[in-house]
Design a protein that fits this description.
By secondary structure, this protein is α+β, with helices and mostly antiparallel strands. It folds into 2 domains: 4-221, PmbA/TldD fold (2-Layer Sandwich); 226-447, no CATH class. It contains 9 helices and 19 strands. It has helices at 4-20, 76-92, 125-140, 209-222, 240-254, 256-261, 321-327, 358-362, 413-419, and strands spanning 25-41, 44-62, 65-71, 145-164, 169-185, 192-200, 232-238, 281-283, 306-310, 313-314, 335-336, 343-344, 349-351, 367-375, 385-396, 399-412, 421-422, 432-433, 437-446. A 6-stranded antiparallel β-sheet has the order 3-2-1-4-5-6. A 5-stranded mixed β-barrel has the order 7-14-15-16-19. A 5-stranded mixed β-sheet has the order 10-9-8-13-18, covered by helices on one side. α3 (125-140) packs parallel to α4 (209-222). Belongs to the peptidase U62 family. Residues 232-445 form the Metalloprotease TldD/E C-terminal domain. GO terms for molecular function: metallopeptidase activity. One of its GO terms (cellular component) is cytosol.
Length: 447
């Protein structure tokens, strides 16, 4: 795998070639990844995968016209032809008054900080096989587990580099480790499946195979013999496995491109008290070892910690340069880049913990729903209407009771935000983290 400096050299070379070929401005992004994964099933080796890939993307501007191309072929001749094609495409593209690189005066300057994203490890197939076997064994050891879809362990290394024609050049690398298990409990038509997993940049931060496997097995067994949910408006609790999705819907609604297109249900509500005044949702792009940590965004702007929600209100939109120009605002360092035009993305997000434990939040709930799994994508970004298939457990007499399945939970995100109460069980395990959430008044329907 290339070093970060070598990756940056490739991006800079392509960017320079574009301006020499007639582009007024350009940026180039180089990404490479090497990954190894091992899957064990029923104690036997089922699959070993090794993948190595690289991709370089070029975006050029000719006046207010732009085009983007990408390739995995690093042959010098092919790259030269890629540059020529991209510049020619840009000359024929329609004009876009908002097109262009990020403002030069806002670019990240100085040395790229070390966010401790790479532990320097290399893939060890024997160790991965041992870990995959251990996580599956731990899951299968749970009483009631009858079959397995497998235990998996993986290792990856990545390099990312971005260069622009107006003075930005930066790159960084990361490592990745993950463990997962998926098992089945019960027999015949009564079988239930569940899983558990964990990912980390450093192997020393990865949860143990014993704990991940045991959790997967316990979850599958707990789902056996599900009943039906009641119909009506009830308090709904979202387990931390799924509660981060509520934060994700908020982010989609405050993304600059959605605001610029007029397709967000939060347009006109930016000054409203959307949440309880105690609610804080924070983005921390430079958290050491964070799963989505990054020192600069996809356009070369510096990243910084920010409260997305504070005092119950959103603190502004998340903007890349194009949406910022369209809205007459300043980009916020949230641009993301793939193979073409930039988009908007946050990094390490969390909804701050509340003051009560989940048990305390449930106390006094005569009948409610505890959701552990959501199915489908039933969210309307324009209206905020929310309807998702779900499974989980009944809450009776203030405690979690029997499993239930094949029901829907519905509401409107504006109403859900206003009613949201967080528990105190926040744990930083994923890129987006939230504690158990209680939302009263949601509509529950069972077939």
């Amino acid at each position: 795998m290339l070093s970060v400096s070598q990756a940056l050299d490739r991006a800079q070379m392509l960017c320079d070639a574009a301006t020499k070929a007639g582009a007024d401005a350009a940026d180039a992004l180089y990404y490479c990844n090497a990954a190894t994964s091992v899957t064990m099933r029923l104690g036997a080796l089922e699959d070993v995968e090794r993948s190595e890939g690289q991709d370089i993307s070029l975006r050029v501007f000719v006046g207010q016209r732009s085009a983007s191309v990408s390739t995995a072929d690093m042959d010098a001749g092919e790259l030269a032809r890629l540059v020529e094609r991209c510049v020619a495409m840009a000359r024929e593209a329609p004009e876009d008054p908002y097109a262009g690189l990020a403002p030069a005066d806002l670019l990240f300057r100085g040395a790229v900080p070390d966010l401790d994203l790479d532990d320097g490890s290399e893939a060890d197939p024997a160790a991965l096989r041992e870990a995959a076997l251990a996580v599956e064994d731990a899951a299968r050891a749970v009483a009631g587990v009858t079959n397995s879809e497998g235990g998996s362990a993986s290792h990856s290394r990545t390099r990312f580099a971005l260069a622009t024609s107006h003075g930005f050049a930066g790159g960084y690398g990361s490592s990745g480790h993950s463990l997962s298990a998926s098992v089945i409990a019960g027999e015949g038509a009564a079988m239930q499946r569940d899983y558990a997993w964990h990912s980390a940049h450093h192997l020393t931060d990865l949860e143990s195979a014993a704990d991940i496997g045991a959790r997967a097995g316990a979850r599958a067994v707990a789902r056996l013999e599900p009943g039906k949910a009641p119909n009506g408006k009830l308090p709904v609790f979202f387990d931390p496995r799924v509660s981060g999705g509520i934060v994700g819907h908020l982010l989609a609604a405050i993304a600059g491109p959605a605001i610029a297109r007029g397709t967000s249900f939060l347009i006109g509500k930016e000054k409203d008290m959307l949440f309880d005044s105690s609610i804080i949702i924070r983005d921390e792009p430079r958290r050491p070892r964070g799963l989505r940590s990054r020192p600069f965004d996809g356009e070369g702007l510096p990243t910084a910690a920010r409260d997305i929600v504070a005092d119950g209100r959103i603190t502004g939109w998340l903007l890349d340069s194009a949406s910022a120009r369209q809205l007459g605002l300043t980009p916020t360092g949230h641009a993301s880049r793939g193979g073409g035009a930039s988009g908007v993305a946050a990094s390490n997000l969390h909804l701050a913990a509340g003051a009560q434990s989940p048990a305390e939040l449930m106390a006094g709930v005569a009948e409610g729903i505890y959701v552990t799994e959501l199915i489908g994508h039933g969210v309307n970004p324009v209206t905020g209407d929310y309807s998702r298939g779900a499974s989980g457990f009944m809450i009776r007499g203030g405690a979690i009771a029997e499993p239930i399945a094949e029901f829907t939970v519905a509401g409107n995100l504006v109403d859900m935000f206003a009613a949201l109460i967080p528990a105190d069980d926040l744990i930083f395990r994923h890129a987006t983290n939230a504690p158990t959430l209680r939302i009263d008044g949601m509509t529950v329907a069972s077939s």
